[in-house]
Amino acid sequence: MKVNTNKVRLNKSQQEAFHFLLDMKNYEQLMPSDTKSFEIHESGKGFTVGVGSLPKVGMRLKEAIEPSKIIFESPAPAFDYTLTIDMEAIDDTHTDVALDFDGKFNMMIEMMAKKPLTTFIETIAENLGKI
C-alpha cells in the first residue's frame, strides 16, 4: 500500500527543514486534531501516536540523509512499513517536502487501514505546510 502526498512548501531552508523534521518533538504539532496520544520513544529516535480509529502507529528513525531525506520504519516486526520524507531546496528560504508511505500489509489490513492511513499522512503534510 502506497500513500504519496503532494509537495508542501515550507518557509525554511532545506537545512532548517531537515533539522525541524529530525526533532521528534516537532511531530506532535503536525498530528491530526483527533490525536489521542503522542509519545516520543526513550531513544528520542521515534514516536508512537494514537489517532482516531487507527490503532497506535509507531515510527522509528531508520536513516537520515542530511539535508534531503528522513526515513522512518515500523518499530514492530509484525508490520512492515516505511515513511520517507524528501526535502528539496527551492531557494535559501524555501523547501518542498513530500511524504511517501509504503506498507506491506495483507489485503484485509490494507482494506481497513488505507483510508485512515491516507488521511493521517495527508494531514501531517497539510499541517507541515502551515508551519
Describe this protein with a few key phrases.
8-stranded antiparallel β-sheet, 131 residues, alpha+beta, 42% strand, single chain
Q: What does this entry look like structurally?
A:
The protein has 131 residues and is of the alpha+beta class. It has a single domain (2-129), classed as START domain (Alpha-D-Glucose-1,6-Bisphosphate, Chain A, domain 4, 2-Layer Sandwich). 24% of the residues lie in helices and 42% in strands. The chain is built from 2 helices and 8 strands, in the order ββαββββββα. It has helices spanning 14-22, 107-129, and strands spanning 2-4, 8-10, 35-40, 46-51, 57-65, 69-73, 80-91, 94-104. Strands 1, 2, 3, 4, 5, 6, 7 and 8 form an 8-stranded antiparallel beta sheet that branches. A hairpin with a 5-residue loop joins strand 4 (46-51) and strand 5. It is globular and about 45 Å long. The chain starts with a strand and ends with a helix.
Write the layout of secondary structure elements.
Blueprint: E1 2-4, E2 8-10, H1 14-22, E3 35-40, E4 46-51, E5 57-65, E6 69-73, E7 80-91, E8 94-104, H2 107-129
Antiparallel strand pairs: 1-8, 2-8, 3-4, 4-5, 5-6, 6-7, 7-8
The CATH architecture can be given as 2-Layer Sandwich
Q: What is the radius of gyration computed over CA atoms, rounded to a whole number of angstroms?
A: 14 Å
Low-confidence stretches: none
Mean pLDDT: 93
Order of helices and strands: EEHEEEEEEH
CATH topology: Alpha-D-Glucose-1,6-Bisphosphate, Chain A, domain 4
Q: What composes the largest sheet?
A: 8 strands, antiparallel
**Percentage of residues in helical conformation:** 10-25%
CATH C-level class: Alpha Beta
Number of strands: 8
Strand content: 35-45%
Distance between the termini: 28 Å
What gross morphology would you assign?
globular
Count of runs of 4 or more consecutive helical residues: 2
How many domains comprise the coordinates?
A: 1
Could you say which structural class the secondary elements and strand pairing correspond to?
alpha+beta
Name of the CATH homologous superfamily: START domain
